[in-house]
Each structure stands twice: as structure tokens, then as C-alpha cells.
Known about the structure:
Elements lengths: L1 H21 L2 E6 L12 H23 L5 E8 L25 H13 L4 E4 L2 H11 L2 H11 L6 H17 L3
Parallel strand pairs: 1-2, 2-3
Amino acid sequence: MMVNCHAHFWTTKAFLPTMLEINHGHIVTVASSLGLFSTAGVEDYCASKFGVVGFHESLSHELKAAEKDGIKTTLVCPYLVDTGMFRGCRIRKEIEPFLPPLKPDYCVQQAMRAILTDQPMICTPRLMYIVTFMKSILPFEAVVCMYRFLGADKCMYPFIAQRKQATNNNEAKNGI
């Protein structure tokens, strides 16, 4: 929560007053596709990303209501980025070739393009827009079926198992 959500509060609190004074600036919120839809096993991470998405949306509405059209906002929501943070995360093997982890450079390029063109939101890959749309119109059980089909319902389980094994190995090594 401190990094994924609260950091955005504090950064915005530091810079927004001057932006409001001069009606100029750009607030970029780095969230995640897991701030738009969730999966099992990483509830804390999803909660922090949902929190920052909600903060971003509320702030964007506040700026529009205040008619501060010189202050732009961009919400960045990438799918799994290949940084090693969630190494082991796996979707359904038949789907994986179509949704591999994203390269960090690609995510930066997409975010920069969105910022420079004043795009309010960027989801990478674009397929994430469809998942978000489907989640908003389908009943919950249908979304569960979609997640199961994609293998997204348990995609974090291999990652969690690896972390648990690493923790157990470290505890055994340290005699705990």
C-alpha cells in the first residue's frame, strides 16, 4: 500500500497545488491491469492497485469539475511486466504465446506515447481493455468462467508456490 498507493497520494499532494495555480501539468498514475480486475492469491497487491486506480479516477473527475483543463492525467495499466517481480506467474499454456509477459521498454514506450498525446488511460496490451469491458458488463459468474478459460483464476499460484518454497529453503538454511 505504501509504494503502490500512498506514494501517489504524497507525490500528488506535493505537486498538485502549483499545478492548480498555473493550470498546467500532467499527473501520471502507474497502476496495473490488476487494478482493473483481480486474481486469486495476490489480494494485497490488487487492493493497492485498485486503490490507486480509484484515487486517479477521483482526482481526474475533481480536475474536470474544477475546470482545470490544463492539468492532464494518464492512468498506466500494464499487464504482467517481465521484471521478475511475479516470476512464475502462468496463464493457460495455450494462451501464453498470445499474452507473454511484457518487456519493460515496451511498457515505457506505450506509457510515454500516452502521456505525450494526453491519452487519459493506457492498457497494454490492448486486450486488457476487452477484459475490463467484459468484467463491467458480464455477471460475476460469467467473469469467473472467462478467468478459468484464460487460466487467470489461478495464474499466481505457481508464483506463490515458488515464493513459499524459497522461504522454506531460507528458513531451513538459517535453522528457523
